[in-house]
Amino acid sequence: MTISKKIRVAILISGRGSNMASLIAAATAADYPAEIVLVASNRPDAGGLAAAAAAGIPTRALDHKAYPSRAAFDGALHAELVAANIDLVCLAGFMRIFSAGFVEAWAGRMINIHPSLLPLFKGVHTHEQALAAGVRLHGCTVHYVVPELDAGPIVAQAAVPVLPGDDADALAARILVEEHRLYPAALALIASGHARLDGDRVVFSDTVRRADGALLSLRE
Ligand code: GRF
Prior knowledge:
The structure is a single chain. The protein is built from six helices and eleven strands. By secondary structure, it is α/β, with parallel strands linked by helices. It has a domain at 1-106: 3-Layer(aba) Sandwich (Rossmann fold). The strands form three sheets. The protein has a seven-stranded mixed beta sheet, sandwiched between helices. A hairpin with a 5-residue loop joins strand 10 and strand 11. Helix 1 (18-26) runs parallel beside helix 6. It is globular. The relative contact order is 0.15. The mean pLDDT is 94. 5-O-phosphono-beta-D-ribofuranosylamine binds next to helix 1, strand 5 and helix 6. 5-O-phosphono-beta-D-ribofuranosylamine (GRF) is lined by residues 13, 15-20, 92-93, 113-115, 140, 176, 179.
């Protein structure tokens, strides 16, 4: 199947950027339906920035502490994304809450990966939350971003067992392996048009409409 046009993706990070690296690696495939055209961070010391630059991706560091308000930072970030003609924003360990205006501006065009099986265990310390709850399955979720934290429509999930003796670090490591598989797969579903938002749900189809209007079937 031919994808007529790759969608332009920005990845936002705050730290080491291992999920970012998995997206960049996936997007090197000729038939991957998205290209990573920008990596931006609110922390100039984020380890992932150097990795992105080494992969030849343009990077921007916008130190949130240098802006007088959340709205001012979000405005500067928005301007960078618009200047780069970004179609879709992927949050990958971006540890900063957005203003409602920013989320509104990117509604339906921003996704996140969260280390739990949502709607369980929103927020931070998800592995500690899972251990405290005594669940036998835990995992990760790719979802659209809405104003309410970790509450948007779910695109894809992967589960792992919680094993006897697990601590938060062991669980985090087991889930991170799945995150690195899930996020590129979920982005490909969206970028190819096989997954799309329908109200507050994500729906899937095995046909996509090409830019020239032709309908292509996954079964072709
Ligand atoms: C991941 O566990 C992700 O699910 C969460 O933050 C972590 C980021 O890790 N949102 P990395 O920077 O991608 O290595």
